[in-house]
Amino acid sequence: MTFFEEQLEKGVFQICHCENCNNTIWPPKEICHICYDKTSWKESRNRGKILEFSKKESTYFGLIEIDEGIRVLGDISTKSTPKIGQSVRMNVSFNSKPNYSFIVENN
Amino acid sequence: MNKVAIVGTGQTKFSKDNHDVEKLLFESASSCIQSVNNSDSNNIEGVLVSTNNNSKYLGAILSETMGIRPKISHSIENLCSSGTNAIISAYAYISSGLSDLVLVSGVESSTNPGQVLEWDKSRGSLEHPIYWGSMLTKSHKRKFNTTEEELAIVSAKNHKQAMDNPLAYSNEPRTISEVMNSKQITDDLRILDCSRSCSGSSSVLLASEEKAKTYSDQPIWITGIGQKTTSASFTKNILDEIESTRIAANSAYKMAKIESKNIDVVEVHDAFSVCELMALSELGITSNEKSGEFVRNLFNTENRMVNPRGGLIGAGHPLGATGISQTIEIINQLQGKSDKRQISNPETGLIHNMSAAGTSSSIMVLKN
């Protein structure tokens, strides 16, 4: 398992960052593809916004952009129909593959 | 660069049966070699196999199976656009002078591993293509007011056109109403909006200008090529665009010295219904806003200029063979050999093949 995956397993989404060129690196890797300096990690604030959504059976899912500028797909928990631009909180886990899920805030 | 022609074609039927890939390859390659005037396979200098199958060194295996000892032999994989990537590689071998005659064979079994892209961490556990297909569809509806009926017309049209394609996976007619009432996969996708993974193989033989007339009385010339890869991760896409298609199309038009209005017949990569609408817009044939109306008009007037063999939705999608079968349809159309599917006197045709949620696109322009 990679460091990123180990951290997901602990419920932490680590953002891969290059201090030298001040860029977020996604997907994460040890060496920056712009300046080839070693990258570092910082924990995500786990907040994002809904860019698009749909629903499979009774579960909403969608494309979310988290505050650090990374976009991922995941399930959305909400009491009512999601809205574009709505703020969400992210939970992560890892079970042979990453899992991202989102809870609509101020629901 | 030397001119390059396609001089022979061969295909198997597409089906859900799980045939072994070596058998399918032999079937389409044999049929391709038998389609040319001079079927002495000793002259073949290159054998390229496009596939997502995990079998090893299929280029060499097909060569031996066909009794060919080529200079060049290898596999080519780029998910759903492997087929056109292989044809374009063969073009490069010939136009550069490294080879005069190259066989390109694509193949897939119905249980191919090409659907799930483990590397793309941004998809999380929502790996299946239906998730990105739903995002593109919902976004198209939202931004361009595309209706569910307009999306269903893409599928109804392609199923109808596939009825006249004896090699298609589906030969069942599907009405607009049947599509709209078919099994709901997500809020934005019905089962009949989706192309289906299946088994099948298709082959083409490419020749240099010097050799082309030896093999065919009606060589079809590759006059334009454009390719673009923007990323490997779906989530780096802008949802209402297929940027890679737009860039690749512009390169192909420039090389062929044509504009979109010159295209008489086109095969577009309708992985999902919405992809046909988006591709037609990125190719400059219509706009996203008018794409639903454009396809409705094709359907109502029985105009087969878009996906005459039934597209991926009607004909099936054996990943490594898809781009080659799209190319064969345009060849047949330009040769006037498409039987019931034939459109009237086409001179210029285009193939649009893409992979990984549109992050890569390959375009070819063919002329007779």
**Which term fits the overall shape of chain B?**
globular
Extract low-pLDDT stretches of chain B. none
Characterize the main sheet of chain A: 5 strands, mixed, barrel
Number of strands of chain A: 8
Low-confidence stretches of chain A: none
Helix content of chain B: 25-40%
Computed over alpha carbons, the radius of gyration of chain B is 19 Å
By secondary-structure content and strand pairing, the structural class of chain A works out as: mainly beta
Order of helices and strands of chain B: EHEHEHEHHHEEEHEHEHHHHEE
Number of domains of chain A: 2
Average pLDDT of chain A, rounded to a whole number, is 95
The amount of beta strand of chain A, in percent, is over 45%
General shape of chain A: elongated
Sequence-ordered SSE layout with sheet pairings:
The complex is a heterodimer of chains A (107) and B (368).
Chain A: H1 3-9, E1 14-18, E2 23-24, E3 40-43, E4 47-56, E5 59-66, E6 71-77, E7 87-94, E8 98-104
Parallel strand pairs in A: 6-8
Antiparallel strand pairs in A: 1-2, 1-3, 4-5, 4-7, 5-6, 7-8
Chain B: E1 4-11, H1 21-34, E2 46-50, H2 58-66, E3 72-76, H3 82-95, E4 101-108, H4 129-144, H5 148-162, H6 176-180, E5 184-186, E6 189-190, E7 200-208, H7 209-215, E8 220-229, H8 243-256, E9 265-267, H9 273-282, H10 288-301, H11 311-315, H12 319-335, E10 348-355, E11 360-367
Parallel strand pairs in B: 2-3, 2-4, 9-10
Antiparallel strand pairs in B: 1-7, 1-8, 4-7, 5-6, 8-11, 10-11
Helix pairs in contact in B: 1-2, 3-12, 4-9, 5-9, 5-10, 9-10
